[in-house]
TrEMBL record:
Xref: InterPro entries: FAD-dep_OxRdtase_2_FAD-bd (IPR003953), FAD-oxidoreductase_2 (IPR050315), FAD/NAD-bd_sf (IPR036188), Succ_DH/fumarate_Rdtase_cat_sf (IPR027477)
Keyword rRNA-binding set for record: no
UniProt-listed NCBIfam families: PRK08274.1
Cofactor(s) needed for function: FAD
Keywords noted in UniProt: FAD, Flavoprotein, Oxidoreductase
SUPFAM superfamilies: FAD/NAD(P)-binding domain (SSF51905), Succinate dehydrogenase/fumarate reductase flavoprotein, catalytic domain (SSF56425)
Transmembrane annotation, as ranges: none
Higher taxonomy: Bacteria, Pseudomonadati, Pseudomonadota, Alphaproteobacteria, Hyphomicrobiales
The keyword S-adenosyl-L-methionine appears for this protein: no
Residue ranges occupied by any FAD-dependent oxidoreductase 2 FAD-binding domain in the UniProt entry: 6-472
Organism: Methylobacterium persicinum
Listed name of the protein: Tricarballylate dehydrogenase
Length: 495
């Protein structure tokens, strides 16, 4: 008879590995199964920058988590603080008037303990100096409540969690998709795979959302979303969600919402599969707050300086998808070129450059050049040059008299050379999922739980609605992954 594991975890991303590590911590035997081969394992985690948002009071909360607590920059670094009240306010800003959900409250309350727990598993962090701070008066000033990312970003997170799994005695099988759930007497007792059934006392579904499934994107998010580029793995086809719903799981959360990011218009259909793991995030283009974005009609369509980009990129990625042809151009001048992130200097970054603004617009295929010239001239004339430009704060340097303002960081685009980066919308993950109980068990429509079935990560609905503050997704994976792992271990008679 084939070996029966206490817990089978479906998927190998951050949430899946958090569940596996938590179950192992409670003494359960754990098998992780992954649809991809070893080279593409790790779900969307390996495509991220590894940033995690969590509650902290100051430097003393952060230094114990660092890979290099002796970094010479630390004595002149101002991390500030990020309170539970700030986290709550940030989430409510994307809820479209909804009150804080139960899942959001759990995310806030457990964010700091979850990060400390992950650090204890051997995952270490480093300050995000290159993206979340600006040097001011000789000090590094962090902004937007997001300070730490895992060492070596998302790929480093996936690698560290895999190493932790191996150290703890867990097993992983690649090229092993779950094709169905095994149910006996109403309880889930294993998974079907192409190589035969695998039995367990509890199953954790942690295999992502439906962002890589064009049909499901169109059905749930809307027309045109089949054209979105997929920032991450091609394997998140909604398999776990479909299996759970077929078993009577309660659909939960906002299925019409998703994390979408401005991406290089020329990127592949799926996330950077031909690039080294460390470069897979480089098609993202999120420095729009330093310039302006124009659509094919030559019009601005968002307030590029509405807030720190941590709070706007998921919404603005969606806004690009709503423009004609699902495209836009990010336009910058020489004054801000040194502030653009490394992804704008990436060897495969696509842009055009010209010494004059008229010359730049002449190089843009598919844009209404006359309208674009008028838009930029009107924008330049509206900039309030009396307010100092300061990228470390919401500087209030905006425009005056425009129907669509730029609220912060507005500067006239008037200094050559000029650059324009063509972008489209890239989907990262979806928001709709299933409802889970206190221990991560999948709930039915009647409020009860499906025995033996647990879920975490993108499978959990109700965490995000019309956007999200950057870094919350990976934190959510750890929070709900740990809960599901402990719950599955308990269901298996461990802990």
């Amino acid at each position: 008879m084939a070996k029966q594991h206490d817990v089978i975890v479906v998927g190998s991303g951050n949430a899946a590995m958090s569940a596996a590590l938590a179950a192992l911590e409670r003494g359960a035997s754990v098998l992780v199964i992954e649809k991809a081969g070893e080279d593409l394992a790790g779900g969307n985690t390996a495509y991220t920058a590894g940033a995690m948002r969590f509650v902290y009071e100051g430097n003393d909360d952060l230094v114990p988590l660092l890979a290099d607590p002796g970094d010479p920059r630390l004595p002149r670094t101002d991390f500030g603080a990020y309170t539970a009240a700030q986290f709550e306010s940030d989430l409510l800003g994307f809820n479209d008037g909804r009150p804080l959900s139960r899942e959001q409250r759990i995310l806030i309350d457990e964010s700091a303990p979850a990060l400390r727990w992950l650090s204890a598993q051997g995952v270490k962090f480093e300050p995000i100096y290159s993206r979340q701070s600006f040097e001011k008066d000789g000090r590094f000033v962090f902004w937007g409540g997001l300070t730490l990312a895992t060492h070596d970003e998302g790929f480093g997170l996936a690698r560290a969690e895999l190493e932790a799994l191996t150290r703890a005695g867990g097993e992983i099988r690649y090229n092993c998709p779950a094709t169905g759930l095994i149910v006996e007497d109403g309880a889930v007792v294993g998974v079907e795979t192409p190589d035969g059934p695998l039995r367990a006392k509890a199953v954790v579904l942690a295999c992502g959302g439906f962002e890589a499934n064009a049909d499901m994107r169109t059905r749930y998010i809307g027309e045109g979303w089949d054209k979105a580029r997929v920032r991450g793995t091609p394997h998140n086809q909604g398999d776990g969600l479909s299996m759970a719903l077929a078993l009577g799981a309660k659909a939960h959360g906002f299925f019409g919402g998703c994390h979408a990011t401005p991406m290089d218009r020329q990127m592949p259909e799926y996330g950077n599969l031909d690039l080294p793991h460390g470069e897979r995030k480089h098609y993202r283009k999120i420095c729009y707050f330093l310039g302006v974005m124009l659509n094919a009609e030559g019009r601005r369509f968002v307030d590029e300086g509405k807030d720190f980009r941590n709070y706007t990129y998921a919404q603005f990625g969606r806004a690009i998808m709503e423009q004609p042809g699902h495209v836009a151009w990010q336009i910058f001048d020489a004054k801000v070129d040194h502030l653009l992130y490394s992804e704008y200097r990436f060897h495969d970054a696509h842009f055009v450059q010209a010494d004059t603004l008229d010359g730049l617009l002449d190089e843009l295929d598919g844009i209404d050049r006359a309208a674009a010239r008028a838009t930029l001239a009107t924008f330049n004339a509206a900039v309030d040059a009396d307010v100092p430009f300061d990228p470390t704060v919401r500087d209030g340097r905006g425009t005056r008299g425009l129907p669509l303002p730029k609220s912060n960081w507005a500067q006239a685009i008037d200094t050559g050379p000029f650059k324009a980066y063509p972008v489209t919308g890239g989907i990262t993950f979806t928001y709709g999922g299933v409802e889970v109980g206190e221990a991560g068990g999948v709930r039915r429509e009647d409020g009860g739980e499906i025995p033996g079935l647990f879920a975490c990560g993108e499978m959990v609905g109700g965490v995000f609605f019309n956007g999200y503050p950057g870094g919350s997704g990976l934190t959510s994976g750890v929070v709900f992954g740990r809960r599901a792992g402990y719950g599955a271990a308990a269901a298996a008679g461990r802990g």
